[in-house]
Design goal:
Helices cover about 50% and strands about 5% of the residues. It is mainly alpha-helical and about 250 residues long. Among the domains are: about 80-160, no CATH class; about 170-245, Herpes Virus-1 (2-Layer Sandwich). The strands form three sheets. Strands 1-2 form a two-stranded antiparallel ribbon. It has a two-stranded parallel ribbon with strand order 3-6. Strands 4-5 form a two-stranded antiparallel ribbon.
Length: about 250
Amino acid sequence: MRKPASCSWCEIMGHTRPTCKLEADRRRRICRSLDPATPDEIIQMKEEMTRAFTESAKGIAWREEQLLIVERARQYSERVLERQRVENVRREERNRLRRAEEIASAGARQGRPVSIGAAGGAPAHASRAAPVIDPTLNHSLTQLNAWVTRVRRDVNAAVAIPRAPKSLSLKMVPSFENYTVEEECCICYDAEPIVGLPCKHTFCATCTSTTAKTRCICPMCRAEFSEIHIAQDIHPEQFNKVVAKIIIM
């Protein structure tokens, strides 16, 4: 939505200077040789114009648009924090693995078995049951390398981000009556939302295809999806565009 016009005289949105009540009152007073408006009268007229704009359909739509922008900014901040958290977890696990590999390399250079215990930097996290390592026993270099490979695989599986499937299934629905449908796509604000997701959010075909190529997560509610929904009353030309942009299983 474009920003509503603002008056260059009173700086209030919703009207322009030719239709400004404050400017009209000033001209009327000049033509009738009346005294200029008092500060209280100016403030009262500005409040009336501001109230009229906020209660109008355009003012309500503009306020909802600003609230939506704030909500998007909050969701973006949460996604950034989540990515930082995942990167921090991966960085910590890489550091633990690096310390374990350094110990293994040191043992290989000295030509003796390597003792692994609490001081050896063994990772405390593993998504599956890791081999039980007794700190009082010595382990060979082959055993240590196998253990490091096992832990690395478990760590990567634990912090993995769901990716988009190789293809998406198409489901025809009677209508988008129970879906959240806007006049324009809430991502690009340039096309009509004709593709629905199982979470009941709708987007245009281009934005849905772009999202599906990176990861199968709804941009609004972060819900995973593996299929797309199309209303049965869709125009054949629009249906062909959707099929051309999205790989159908």
